[in-house]
Specification:
With 340 residues, the protein is mainly β. It has one helix spanning 9-19; strands at residues 3-6, 28-29, 36-37, 39-45, 49-54, 60-65, 73-80, 84-92, 95-103, 109-113, 125-132, 137-143, 155-160, 167-173, 181-188, 191-197, 206-211, 216-219, 230-233, 240-246, 255-262, 267-270, 277-279, 287-289, 294-301, 304-310, 317-321, 332-339. The protein has one domain: TolB, C-terminal domain (Neuraminidase, 6 Propeller), CATH 2.120.10.30. It is globular. The termini are far apart.
């Protein structure tokens, strides 16, 4: 395995500046505006470009890039611990997977080409990454023959050491149950929730619950919805997931509705009073701001990009139109937050 440590001065300064904050700092105001931001969100584009987004102003500012990333960030394989953010990029010529780790405080970036165990086939890629706080390692899902569909090749659950990126397998192969695609994942304790489809369509995906300690898999009921749920996230509790349900046969491209999934009851409840919105992409996680106690997601609405905020405790939701957002593209996801 090739390990590299990348320390370009600019990116170190930018990242250190983003993640360091003081209680004495006051909320920023945007130029020409009296709208004050409480939080600044960090968004990552597929080519490694970074942007900050004001939570109230919607102001977008480009702030550099992650060294080494070229084009194909796998957004559902982006996760973070208290100290680092882990990003997976897959390349095809030649086929290889690269994992990056930022240190949130120093700005230092490590990267490594992943060495898969011998039983893995050609062009194996990570489709998901989630940080396991209890075991202090990463949980992922891999797929062989990344470029082929209907391949019926292994889709394996793995653990990855966050220091040396060594991979160990679990005795869980989702392909044996007919699954071919993974869209979104969320880890709660030792239960991995997985949006998995036996086709290429997210609207036909199941919600799975994988018990990591028991190597068991079960399909969860989705009462109250016919098109499934994706882009899931959790707030740290054990009873619910937040996500988005695609709207079938909609004239509004990629239309979705924000929903709450009750894990114990197996029911899906739509978040009310949200205007018509569309998903920018279906294969990632929804970010949760622990300090602000709200989920945040980049969505389309009214021919513009917007920041959707939802507080599960109060039920409050707000749609903030983004400014200077032309460079964001649809291949982008929120990966971090800083309180101002």
């Amino acid at each position: 395995m090739l390990l590299k440590s990348l320390r370009p001065l600019l990116i170190m300064v930018l990242l250190a500046s983003f993640f360091s904050c003081s209680e004495d700092e006051s909320p920023e105001e945007t130029e020409g505006s009296e709208i004050a931001d409480t939080y600044s969100y960090l968004a990552l584009r597929n080519d490694g470009t970074l942007f900050t987004i004001g939570d109230n102003s919607g102001k977008v500012v480009e702030m550099g890039n992650v060294p080494g990333i070229e084009f194909n960030t796998m957004f559902n394989a982006v996760t973070s611990s208290d100290s680092e953010i882990f990003i997976y990029e897959h390349r095809f010529d030649p086929p290889r997977g690269i994992i990056y780790a930022w240190d949130k405080r120093s700005g230092q970036t490590r990267s490594a080409i992943l060495d898969y165990p011998e039983q893995f086939g050609d062009n194996t890629a990570l489709l998901s990454l989630d940080w396991d706080e209890e075991n202090q390692n990463l949980v992922g899902i891999t797929r062989e023959n990344m470029e082929q569909s209907n391949h019926q090749k292994p889709i394996m659950v793995v653990r990855i050491n966050p220091e040396n990126f060594q991979i160990t397998t679990r005795d869980i192969d989702l392909s044996t149950k007919g699954y071919e695609n993974i869209f979104s994942t969320s880890l709660i304790g030792q239960k991995l929730y997985v949006v998995a489809s036996k086709t290429e369509r997210v609207t036909e995906a199941d919600l799975l619950e994988i018990e990591l300690n028991q190597n068991s898999v079960k399909v969860l009921p989705l009462q109250g919805i016919a098109t499934g749920v994706t882009n899931i996230g959790n707030s740290g509790g054990t009873t619910a997931l937040f996500g988005f349900s695609p709207v079938a046969n909609s004239s509004y491209m990629a239309e979705v509705r924000p929903v709450i999934y009750n894990i114990e009851a197996g029911t899906v409840t739509e978040v009310s009073e949200v205007p018509r919105i569309s998903s920018l992409n279906f294969a990632h996680k929804t970010f949760y701001n622990e300090e602000g106690e709200e989920f945040v997601e980049l969505v389309g609405a009214n021919n513009s990009k917007n920041l959707l905020k939802y507080n599960p405790s109060t039920g409050d939701q707000e749609l903030i139109k983004l400014h200077n957002a032309d460079e964001l593209s649809s291949l982008i996801s929120i990966v971090a937050v800083r309180e101002l």
